[in-house]
UniProtKB/TrEMBL annotation:
Keywords: ATP-binding, FAD, Fatty acid metabolism, Flavoprotein, Lipid metabolism, Nucleotide-binding, Oxidoreductase, Peroxisome. Residues 480-659 form the Acyl-CoA oxidase C-terminal domain. Belongs to the acyl-CoA oxidase family. This is Acyl-coenzyme A oxidase. Its main location: other.
Length: 662
């Protein structure tokens, strides 16, 4: 059956006809300016004109091995296409285009992110000169090998050892137990010939804690594993199965002294240790990746939202008024309630990701001149935002799937794949509960410092013991954000009180911490969300002077929805601390419902402005033209089971069963 694709179906035409703002302007804001939109589109055009980058057959129908090879084919093609056209891998990462193409984890993602970032951030000048050109030109291919079978979160508990032998000026890398096996690193199994390896540094019998080493794993000609090294792939996962997540063991494997990354700490030839300016500088690559993940999570959420919102405008179901035609499901208030707060979250995360990037850039510049004072602030912000962004992207993506009913469960909707890929983000790069507990540590320290009269860094300055009272009317955006801040201050104060009470009653500080950790995680989550609200309000108010009134109104409504939704989610706390009363909450609930109806009118245009082309959405439900049913039908025809009318399985199993005398 041939597909006659209309320019765009009537439902979507009508939706788009109601647009009251300049879509291109909103696109530019999301990209970070017109020049960046233009650059992204140039990259997209180039990629779209490279057919080798696209799948002939859905990876769902490939074997485990073919899936990997197919993704490797596309990943290498992507790198050469970018290079030939004067772009870098970084352009593909920062515009999102590369990650959308390589849809399910890919064998070069760790190379272009954590491997290269470690070389750039942890090398001394000689190492940088030696390794960076090789890695940038893909002469060596690497990954970030930190996690072990026995330890992922607790980096200090890693078991792999790097023992210095001053007689040969080498480190001896060893995996003393099964639990010391490196486990999980992306692209470690079959792709990488190098890895940056986190191992416990031993000098003269003394352990100096985890340090990073550049280790060659495979021969550069034959790609065979080097002696003293065992490496392989860990097998199928929930998602991201196009990647070759791997395992790695060392058997007294020797590497030169100069292969320890020596920007921050050094070992001299005679085995003396030179301390870094801050003990956690070697965790820098993780921090940088967390910053990137906030963007990544917001992008993945936006893909799910485009799919679900367009589909909700095309799908008609049930009767709202008996006897009337079936309405678009987007007209149901419950459907709006499922989707639109997540649309607001996407915008909130995008603005917060940008603010975090600025903190990262500022802190990195400071580190260059020996200033370490911003490091705890960056660690807390990047940990909290990574956790909230991935939690919300996962939850939002699953809601989008559910909002598409049965068809959301189809692989061809692409929602399952977006979900499984982003679901890994809750665990990797610091498990979210663990990261929240790091934020909580910062909050409690800050709260206590404030009680002793110290000035607090900007992200926690609202926690000071005697904050100035809010002058903004409660129901204004600022007033509600101040109320949320008061709620967090109350929660942190309460956590501190409970901790102190437990210590006073004889518990050790560590036992008290564990006994309060559920509440502490809630504090960290609430603090991070308060920060996100602040960033959203600030960004919209700053843009107010420069953008057209239509775009400003849409952003103002999305920001308002985000804040109202947050206040409702936190109602219990806000009532307990007296920041709002029942009457205010009732009017906030009513306003939220009203706002859902207002935003619904332009919802399709808003997701259009996110500007992700069909080839990157890869969804039968979310394509620009809304031709949903034809696409679903055509995709089903590609199932290998439809190649013949009667399958082999019938002759092998079903027929014998039917003929058996049971
Ligand atoms: C370019 C962008 C690309 C974007 C691409 C996105 C696409 C994604 C594709 C990639 C796919 C997958 C990648 C996944 C890769 C990985 O998962 S790599 C492995 C990551 N592993 C982790 O994240 C481990 C998590 N654990 C930790 O970070 C630490 O162990 C933990 C912080 C939990 C505790 O560390 P300890 O060493 O045990 O800490 P303590 O000794 O207890 O000390 C705590 C104090 O140290 C401070 N601290 C901790 N970390 C940092 C840091 N990074 N910076 C600054 N300070 C830090 C902490 O605040 C405590 O300070 P205090 O004592 O309170 O003053
Ligand atoms: C798809 C994927 C890709 C990955 N890629 C890489 C990679 O490229 N390189 C690499 O080195 N690693 C990689 N990892 C590993 C990843 O970084 C770890 O899985 C992650 O850091 C969590 O560690 P864990 O698995 O040891 O979990 P655990 O730490 O064992 O966590 C299990 C549970 O214990 C809880 N828990 C642990 N510690 C605490 C605590 N202190 N307080 C309270 N609760 C706690 C956690 O909250 C969680 O609920 C990857 C993982 C995945 C899933």
């Amino acid at each position: 059956m041939s597909v006659v694709v209309p320019e765009c179906c009537d439902d979507l035409k009508r939706e788009r006809g109601r647009c009251l703002f300049n879509k291109e302007e909103l696109t530019n804001i999301l990209d970070g300016g017109p020049k960046l939109t233009e650059k992204r589109r140039r990259i997209e055009k180039m990629l779209i004109n490279t057919p080798e980058l696209f799948d002939d057959v859905s990876p769902d129908y490939l074997s485990h091995e073919d899936r990997y090879s197919n993704e490797l084919r596309k990943a290498t093609q992507l790198m050469t296409t970018l290079e030939k056209n004067g772009f870098t891998y970084n352009d593909a990462v920062t515009t999102g285009t590369g990650l959308w193409l390589l849809m399910d984890g890919n064998p070069l993602s760790l190379h272009i992110s954590m491997f290269l970032d470690t070389i750039k951030g942890q090398s001394n000048p000689q190492q940088l000169q030696e390794w960076l050109p090789l890695a940038e030109k893909f002469k060596i291919i690497g990954t970030y090998a930190q996690t072990e079978l026995g330890h992922g979160t607790f980096v200090r508990g890693l078991e792999t050892t790097a023992t210095y032998d001053s007689t040969t000026k080498e480190f001896v890398l060893h995996s003393p137990t099964i639990t010391a096996t490196k486990w999980w690193p992306g692209a470690l199994g079959k792709t990488s010939n190098h890895a940056v390896v986190m191992a416990q540094l031993y000098l003269g019998g003394k352990c100096y804690g985890p340090h990073i080493f550049m280790v060659q794993l495979r021969d550069l000609e034959t790609h065979r594993t080097l002696p003293g090294i065992v490496v392989g792939e860990i097998g199928p996962r929930l998602g991201m199965n196009s990647n070759d997540n791997g395992f790695l063991q060392f058997n007294h494997h020797r590497i030169p002294l100069t292969n320890m990354f020596m920007k921050h700490s050094q070992v001299t030839e005679d085995g003396k240790y030179v301390k870094p300016l801050h003990s956690k500088l070697s965790y820098g690559t993780m921090v940088q990746t967390r910053v990137g993940i906030v963007y990544h999570a917001s992008r993945e959420l936006s893909r799910a939202l485009i799919i679900a919102i367009r589909y909700s405008a095309v799908r008609h179901q049930s009767e709202m008024v008996p006897g009337d035609p079936e309405p678009q499901i987007l007209d149901y208030q419950t459907q709006q309630y499922k989707l639109l707060p997540h649309l607001a979250s996407f915008f909130a995360l995008r603005f917060s990701a940008r603010a975090l990037l600025e903190v990262f850039i500022g802190t990195s510049a400071g580190l260059g001149s020996g200033k370490m004072n911003m490091l705890p602030e960056l660690h807390a912000l990047s940990s909290g935002l990574k956790a909230v962004a991935t939690n919300d992207a996962v939850k939002g993506t699953d809601i989008c799937r559910l909002a598409c009913g049965g068809h959301g469960y189809l692989s061809s909707s692409n929602l399952p794949r977006i979900y499984t890929a982003i679901a890994a983000g809750i665990t990797y790069e610091g498990e979210n509960t663990v990261l929240f507990l790091q934020v909580a540590r910062y909050l409690i320290k800050s709260f206590r410092a404030s009680s002793q009269g110290q000035t607090l860094p900007f992200s926690v300055s609202y926690l000071r013991v005697q904050p100035p009272s809010s002058h903004a009317p409660l129901m204004s955006d600022r007033g509600l954000v101040d109320a949320l801040g008061a709620g967090v201050r109350w929660m942190v104060g309460e956590a501190e009180r409970r901790l102190q009470q437990l210590v006073d009653s004889g518990h050790s500080p560590h036992a008290a911490w564990n006994a309060c950790s559920v509440h502490l995680v809630q504090c960290a989550d609430a603090h991070t969300r308060y920060y996100i609200c602040e960033q959203f309000v600030d960004a919209v108010s700053k843009l107010g002077e420069t953008v057209s009134s239509g775009v400003h109104e849409v952003l103002r409504q999305l920001c308002r929805l985000y804040i109202l939704h947050r206040v409702i989610q936190t109602a219990g706390i806000l009532l307990r601390c007296g920041a709002v009363d029942g009457k205010a909450l009732t009017s906030i609930e009513e306003e939220e419902c009203h706002l859902l109806a207002t935003l619904r009118i332009q919802a399709v245009s808003i997701v259009d402005a996110i500007d992700i082309k069909d080839v990157f959405l890869k969804s039968t439900l979310g394509a620009w033209d809304g031709n949903v049913y034809q696409r679903i039908y055509e995709e089903a025809q590609k199932s290998p089971l439809n190649k013949s009318d009667v399958t082999q399985g019938y002759y092998q199993y079903l027929r014998p069963l039917m003929k058996a005398n049971l």
